[in-house]
Specification:
alpha/beta; 178 residues; 8 strands; 5 helices; single chain
């Protein structure tokens, strides 16, 4: 009887390995594992450098890559809400001023933007380490004072982050992955 029950349980829960680029969260590489279960909505759990995505059984026959990409995108958005708020507050305290508003929005080939006194940050920024997230927010804050990348802009940037050139290189070399 237990043998039959174990076969049924094993049949209901199938793990599927999907080929995908590494998934980074705060600079750490995570593996992705998809599990089909008797759940109503997709669930995501992070443990031991593995992102476990539990999908309803009804998704077994759909294209897993689309579902996986959507789940990862939603995860980045949730992490970004916390991380960008933390960085915005840290830089606000450091500089003593703030933008009128800030948004978290997917942007193609852009990690951050400052326009009309509003800072916009790409949620995929959470792929990078926190020090780079802080740098990008600082960079956009500097645009509140200087609209272009003039000498004064870089002087202000360097005053608060001496490694800004290093961070710029890291971002540029990884921008294609966004």
């Amino acid at each position: 009887m237990n043998l039959i029950r174990n076969k049924i349980v094993t049949k209901k829960i199938q793990e599927v390995s999907i080929e995908r680029s590494p998934v980074y969260i705060l600079g750490t590489d995570y593996k992705v594992k998809i599990v089909y279960r008797n759940v109503r909505v997709p669930e995501l759990d992070i443990e031991n450098k593995t992102i476990k995505i539990s999908l309803p059984n009804k998704y077994k026959k759909t294209e897993n890559k689309k579902i996986l990409d959507l789940a990862i995108e939603k995860m980045y958005e949730q992490i970004a809400k916390v991380e960008i708020e933390r960085a915005m507050e840290k830089i606000r305290i450091l500089l003593g001023f703030a933008p009128d508003d800030y948004k978290i929005k997917n942007m193609k080939n852009e990690i951050g933007r400052c326009k009309n006194n509003t800072i916009t940050i790409n949620p995929k920024i959470v792929m990078f380490h926190r020090n780079i997230i802080d740098y990008v927010v600082l960079h956009e804050y500097c645009h509140l004072k200087y609209k272009t990348h003039c000498k004064s802009f870089y002087k202000m940037l360097e005053e608060y982050e001496e490694n800004y050139e290093k961070y710029e290189e890291i971002i540029k070399s990884n921008l294609f992955e966004l």
